[in-house]
UniProtKB/TrEMBL annotation:
Listed transmembrane segments: none
SMART domains: PGAM
Protein name per the record: Histidine phosphatase family protein
Gene Ontology cellular component annotations, sorted alphabetically: cytoplasm
Molecular function in Gene Ontology: phosphatase activity
UniProt cross-references to CDD domains, sorted A to Z: HP_PGM_like
Cross-referenced InterPro entries: His_Pase_superF_clade-1, His_PPase_superfam, PGM_Phosphatase
Length: 221
């Protein structure tokens, strides 16, 4: 039987963003106090699993501050280094840096950005996001399998949109979607189960479900 691995794509915790800016890839946006609690919750979730015989073998995170801060407590608990993985970075977005994006959409100069929501025309194509995340998933799972064998597990902290479109691809659903319908809450875990054919199934969990209910609905996450 061929070896299998699991790559857990974790969305980062809540960000301190009182101005409600669509922060995207802008540096300097770290976790709020609630976000730090969420990060500790993720450390407890995977740390407890490890103590029950389901260890994590490899850690990686987007280079953005909110992702690095989310994975830090887990790295400390497990005593593992964190690989910085640029391929799971937040998606590019032409509205980055704006607050109250809905108001700006009424301005004619932004209308050309809205011509093709299926691509989407205002940012990095969904297909391109999936391709780069899958490349990272393959490389990380291959490394974990080579070093630790069958059943190896990897935790990767990333961002909502790249995680969600990757899940849509894995479940053979259209990549275009209503952002309000994304099932990818703060510090949720989207697990890609890897087999000989690549991603063979997906599972989803919310270790911090109660904390997520307290979070603000902020843009740019």
């Amino acid at each position: 039987m061929a070896d299998t691995a699991t790559v857990h794509l974790v969305r980062h915790g809540e960000v301190h963003n009182p101005q409600k800016v669509l922060y995207g890839r802008i540096p300097g946006y770290g976790l709020s106090e609630l976000g730090k609690q969420m990060a500790q919750g993720i450390a407890d979730y995977f740390g407890d699993r490890a103590e029950r015989g389901r260890p994590v073998h490899l850690l990686a995170a987007s280079p953005l501050q909110r992702a690095q801060e989310t994975i830090a407590p887990l790295a400390q608990r497990l005593g593992l280094p964190v690989l910085t993985e640029n391929r799971v970075l937040e998606a590019e977005n032409a509205f980055e840096g704006l607050s109250n994006v809905k108001r700006h959409l009424r301005t004619p100069k932004y209308w050309p950005l809205l011509v093709n929501p299926f691509r989407p025309s205002w940012g990095e194509p969904y297909k391109q996001q999936v391709e780069r995340v899958l490349q990272a998933v393959k490389d990380l799972s291959d490394r974990a399998l080579a070093e630790h064998g069958d059943g190896a597990e990897v935790v990767v902290v990333s961002h909502q949109l790249p995680i969600w479109v990757t899940r849509l691809w894995a479940e053979q659903r259209p990549l275009w979607h209503d952002p309000r319908q994304r099932e990818c809450t703060l510090t949720s875990v989207t697990s890609l189960h890897i087999g000989p054919a690549g991603v063979e199934s997906v599972s989803y969990s919310e270790p911090n479900k109660e904390l997520s209910k307290q979070a603000l609905a902020l843009p740019g996450a």
